[in-house]
Design a protein that fits this description.
It is built from 15 helices and 19 strands. The model has no long low-confidence stretch (mean pLDDT about 95). By secondary structure, it is α/β, with parallel strands linked by helices. The two termini are about 35 Å apart. The protein has a six-stranded antiparallel beta barrel with strand order 11-12-17-16-15-18. The chain has a five-stranded parallel sheet with strand order 2-1-3-4-5, with helices on both faces. It has a four-stranded parallel sheet with strand order 7-6-9-10, sandwiched between helices. The chain has helices at about 20-40, 55-70, 90-95, 120-125, 125-140, 155-175, 195-200, 210-220, 225-235, 245-270, 290-300, 310-320, 435-445, 460-470, 485-495, and strands at about 10-15, 45-50, 75-80, 100-105, 145-150, 175-180, 205-210, 240, 275, 300-305, 330-340, 345-350, 360-370, 380-385, 390-400, 405-415, 430, 450-455, 475. Helix 10 crosses helix 11 (about 290-300). Helix 3 links the parallel strand 3 (about 75-80) and strand 4 (about 100-105).
Amino acid sequence: MLKRKNYKFWFCTGSQDLYGEECLANVAEHSKIIVEKLNASGVLPYEVIWKPTLITNELIRKTFNEANMDEECAGVITWMHTFSPAKSWILGLQEYRKPLLHLHTQFNQEIPYETIDMDFMNENQSAHGGREFGHIFTRMGIERKVVVGHWSDEAVQKKIGSWMRTAVGVIESSHVRVMRIADNMRNVAVTEGDKVEAQIRFGWEIDAYPVNEIVEAVDSVSSQDVDALVEEYYDTYDILLEGRDAKEFRQHVAEQAQIELGFERFLDEKNYHAIVTHFGDLGKLKQLPGLAIQRLMQKGYGFGAEGDWKTAAMVRIMKIMTEGMEGAKGTSFMEDYTYNLVPGKEGILQAHMLEVCPSISEGPIGIKVNPLSMGNKKDPARLVFTSKTGPAVAVSLIDLGDRFRLIINDVNCKKTEKAMPKLPVATAFWTPEPNLSIGAEAWILCGGAHHTAFSYDITSEQMGDWAAAMGIEAVYIDKDTTIRNLKNELRWNEVAFRK
């Protein structure tokens, strides 16, 4: 289950003692006011904590190391009120290990034209100090986020809030543990990858379990617990018998309830946050996990099919980044299936055999039981629905052998032109930016997978910031993409990200 952690962000103001105690008192007062107003804005998803003004390299180093050790601190927001000599920050930055945002602002919004004098200029020189501060990051090659504008501007506050969610995704990445049931789908390349390098780069632990060890957890679930969950299903979703015997239908649904309970207890007991299944190795499971996986995803677990641990981890991280977001439209595992190539109606039908998260649904959600040719098991129960419409982002993390690449595609979700009454799965339908022809060609040139981590609630900027914090390549496919420029970018990246 996805549990919201009480993360906080430290607000650290930079200055020095050249201008005396009165100036430093004003610096502290101004930074406290900014923190108070940011917290009162209602825009930020996490609390900002004021910290005393940083003047010496000893205090900077001590503060940053305290931030490293504080499990509630998800990052630091820095503001250079006056001029802070950049060499004072070197040791602290060398040892700091969490996300950092450089808020390039100043206390006053407007120049006080009639009263401005040299005392004011000396005290309020963020334009000066911010450049000195920015230089040392560039000189040291350290990744950071820069937000420019007045701190009271809602647009600036929204940028800070957006970065906070990315920062939490960075912090939580080092905690992600993926449970793989069985192994990768045989002979498939894109779902494979270097799990050791993934742990070094992202902090992910990716562990495999024999499927029948998980089956033991499923079999241990009591009939009373199964019955209670089935009742919850029947109260929550539309039951679509479609001519099947009601008793037999319920038994198929009960199998998924048992799988959901058994899987979740196993995940919880062993502290895993994402799960990977493979229809080619189901052991003694009676059905391919369908409805069960859909429900687990809605609870916040990541998921990847056919052994795709990279997508499972990304779904988990994206769910963490969007957790608690007001008006969230949903995040899910997804797969490209088939095209509509009718001129003016182009798009890609997205689905999977069963496993699409109901958080993205619009309208009623039903339960169906239908045969599945793959897996050679009993007919699995699954939730069926259509997705919401609107802009979204689809990402694919791929392993190129010498590095990871995150492909980020802006997409526009819409309704299919006609109903698909014979397709018993949850679906989405989208057109990639800038259009299907260029978007699909660009995706293929980048080496993108057929699986994606998909969200209505995350921006391409946030995912790019996550990739930058992880030190990996990010490639954007959006309204400005052209194939010529993309090919050049990929060539440049071969050099820039070569080990």
